[in-house]
Sequence to fold (298 residues):
Amino acid sequence: MDLNRATTFVRVVEAGGFTRAAEALGLPPSSVSRAVQKLEGDLGITLLERTTRNVTLTEAGRAFFERAREALAGLAEANELALDAAREVHGVVRLAVPPELGGKLGTALSAFAVAHPRVRIEATFTARGAEVVGDLVDIAIVVGRLPDSSLVTRRLGESTDKLYASPAYVEARGAPKRVADLARHDAVLSRAVAGGGRWELVGPRGPEHVDVAGRMVGEHLQFLVDAAVAGLGIALLPIWAGDPLIADGKLLAILPRFSTTTPLHILTHGARHLPRRVALLRDHLFTTLTTVCGKHGC
Fold:
């Protein structure tokens, strides 16, 4: 079977007629018609019912069209992948990153940019990366449990968070002695519903949870840190952000035997083949962040 004839047939069906298909292909309508006739002769079946005004698929033609279109799309994808592999990696990779991890990615992305100077990285800072992979971004780093989906997931490690407050806040409001006491304190929250949130913490007796009221609410990590340092409430922060501020005297550990850990993932779309630039950045981030999170926590 001549693939050019199969391609012409698919274009005729997609265009809705020989004339429009000929215009799209840049060929005379008679050439397009002959190509389809020869394809029918090769196959020994009638693919199209022709009238003076339009063409319609026969039952056999519809079955052939559906499989042929899929096969031709696969060939086009294979051609693009082969060209992509043969030339220097180039193009745009769109990346979604949780705001709290933005400070950890500068070195990793810089190293990738030096190694692949023709790749442009466009980063969006959002906690909702899993919702936009495949539509708005190519790769997402996501903190927390994931819903069932067709996305391809790799686990990077865990994010460990603990409670912190400023010395001024503790002096004014006192330090909670139990997890339940947090309900009577102001909280600095990354997310809230009707001004409140729930903290789930693990301590010596296992998991405990408490509902807290948000004095300040914002998704950006630096916003949360600044609010806690300013004495506006108790914040649940990544240990790599909170612990250095204890050493500087800007924050105190609150209920230090309690913490929460959430999984950290890197996601890509469930397509069979990723552009090489996307796969390379995904693998680079996986290697880099797995090492960092494994040694120091994220």
Q: What stands out?
A: The domain at 90-298 is CATH 3.40.190.290 (D-Maltodextrin-Binding Protein; domain 2).
